Amino acid sequence: MKTIMHVDMNAFFAAVEQQSNPALRGRPIAVTGSEKRSIILTASYEARAFGVKTGMTHFEAFKRCPQLTLVPANNRLYTYVSTGIMALFQDYTPLVEVSSVDEAFLDLSGSLKLFGGVERIAYLIKSRIKARFGLTCSIGIAPNKLLAKLASEQRKPDGLTISTAEEIPDILEQMPIQELCGIGRRLGQQLHGFGIFTCGQLSRFPLTMLKKKYGVIGDKLHAMARGIDPSPVIPAEESAPIKSIGHSRTLRHDLDDRQAICAFLLQLAEMVGRRARRYQVSGRIVTLTLRYADFSTLSRQQVQVDYLDGSEEIYRASVKILDNLSLDQPVRLLGVRLSSLRFKVGQLPLFPIERRQYLLTEARDYANDRYGDFTVMFGSLLEQKDKGSHVISPAWRPQGVRSVDVQ
Question: Which of 46, 103, 270, 313 is catalytic?
Fold first, then answer.
């Protein structure tokens, strides 16, 4: 039987801010994006005591906690700290799966004898994170990833919960189904319609009916309710190749001016192209995503004749898609994605004009890698004050193509 650990950093963004600024310690704070219409990204435990939650607007948060201090997000600091924490886990096992900027799974099955048991490893990790970064984490230990994540949620902050195989049926019997990873609000409501509110009830519900309603997902739901999860801990080097590279941006103000929209598309195309070139991939499908002022969202894609990784090519394809749309209302969010990826063959273009463009792009990428994003840029972006990635994507990882530099 495997021994899986789930490490969940406590109120990560807020805790990092409190650690870096002693004046914030012990006070209710909330980390928010730098954009004017940003929401609460995370709140300290002092703020959570007043009911401040992730996703709230500033108005809602101040209504709950008038003495709340808003702190602009320092995403570069968070990714730097996260990278250090994830590297620390490698001292205990090579089988580390980073699931987000503040969470990871560790397969400790082969490491227990080396370090004196799972409980000792947990306390070693906790003490080292506390000593080096001044942060706390909650740790769950169980026979699989599903149960380890459930265990880490049981005692927060700074908790340690070990769930053995013998305890699992009792733990799951009265646990609400929404606690299971993968059961969101909509699916939960559907299951409630069948009279299923707890994992125990879900485990006893006829499998044939679940499969009839949800297909293969029905099998998974039935297994999850019984604490069964065969998925392995997959380290970064063994993870499946990525299928797309994309960036999106919520705009400071809703835009209906085509020129202003195209300026943001060029910026996004450069960010996508740079990542594609850095990791030696090219793609054949360009997708443009728009979110309007009323939050309605549409995505349109176009298959290219050739595989591409050039920022200008990605931009032109995005604009072509845009020109085939009728903008019914101002645009709130823009996104550009490159998919149907393949690894490139390292070869200089044959023709002089193409070779010149290739070398110019290579020089621009080199300068920006060395001195920072958009140090060298297209002339039309010079007046654009708001550049670069300002959010940490859920897909962010400390290494590889998913490692995105954020502002």
Answer: 103
Strand intervals (E) in 217-257: 244-255
CA distance to 332, 372, 383, per residue, from 377 (Å) = 24, 11, 11
Amino acid identity for residue 386 in this structure: D
Evaluate whether 89 touches 125 at the Cβ level (below 8 Å): yes
Domains of the chain and CATH, by start: 1-165 (3.30.70.270), 168-225 (1.10.150.20), 241-388 (3.30.1490.100)
The DSSP result for 24-57, as a single string, is: GTTS-EEEE-SSTT-BEEEE-HHHHTTT--TT-B
Provide, rounded to the nearest whole percent, the portion of the chain with pLDDT above 90: 63
Q: What is the pLDDT of residues 172-224, one digit of tens each?
A: 999 999 888 888 888 999 999 999 999 999 999 999 999 988 898 999 999 99
CA 288 – CA 271 distance, rounded (Å): 14
46 is catalytic: no
